Amino acid sequence: MIYEMRTYDLKPRSLPEVEKRFGEMYEKRRKYSELAAFWHTEIGPLNQIIHVWPYRDLEERGRIRAAAVKDGAWPPDTGEFIVAMRSEIMIPFAISPELKPGKMGPYFEMRTYTYATGALPNIIQVWEKALPARLQFSPLCAAWYSELGGLNKFVHIWPYPSLDARNDARSKARATGVWPPSAKKLGIPEYQLTAQENKILMPASFSPLQ
After folding, report:
1. Average pLDDT over the chain, rounded to whole?
2. For the whole model, what pTM was predicted?
3. Helix intervals (H) in the chain
């Protein structure tokens, strides 16, 4: 499975109208394939939406998108509000849960790490060993790496019922020493991160993942 993660930067004060039009058009689009999640930023880069679409592979993605556009079911009429658009194809780690409809949030922390070339195999090993201990404090929503788009990107998404719950889970994990994961402690060659960023996301009313 692959996930297409589309990130749009919007003009200020346009978010309510964009979500309204997107939600209305999605009722037509969903007969071709279902949306996995639709979020807007609450903390971090403002005026941003992120929508995630699951596909079996790139061939299915191309076929579905072409059919939806041909039939007039896509895209929504939001072009006047969009400042920039980015699309990335993400591959889930073997340990990553599948994105399924349901309630996990409503606060989602998306952390995006850029890693040095060649570091991905070590990151995967570290996470496979360290994640079970971290999951004692809060669940993981997704762990992906980029295949197309911005390269050398590693994205992990954590759901929380509140920001206080986020702070509590992270504090407890750090206190035990299991998080953040240490390659050295796990006997795995260390890797280098070149950039890190995070943002807090909230789901739109029509998002299957809440």
Report:
1. 97
2. 0.96
3. 15-29, 58-70, 120-134, 163-176
Say how far apart CA 210 and CA 203 lie, in whole Å: 6
Residue range 38-66, pLDDT digits in tens: 999 999 999 999 999 999 999 999 999 99
Q: Any bridge partners for residue 197, and if so which?
A: 112
**Average pLDDT of the segment spanning 138-147:** 98
What is d(CA 157, CA 45) in angstroms, rounded to the nearest whole number? Answer: 16
∠ CA 2-120-104, nearest 5°, is 50
Determine whether domain 2-203 maps to CATH 3.30.70.100: yes
Backbone phi, psi, residue 207, to 5°? -65, 130
What are the domain boundaries of the chain? 2-203
Tokens for 104, please give them: 């996990």
> Is residue 47 within 8 Å of 9, Cβ to Cβ?
yes
Average pLDDT over residues 90-99: 97
Q: 3 forms bridges with which residues in the sheet?
A: 54, 90
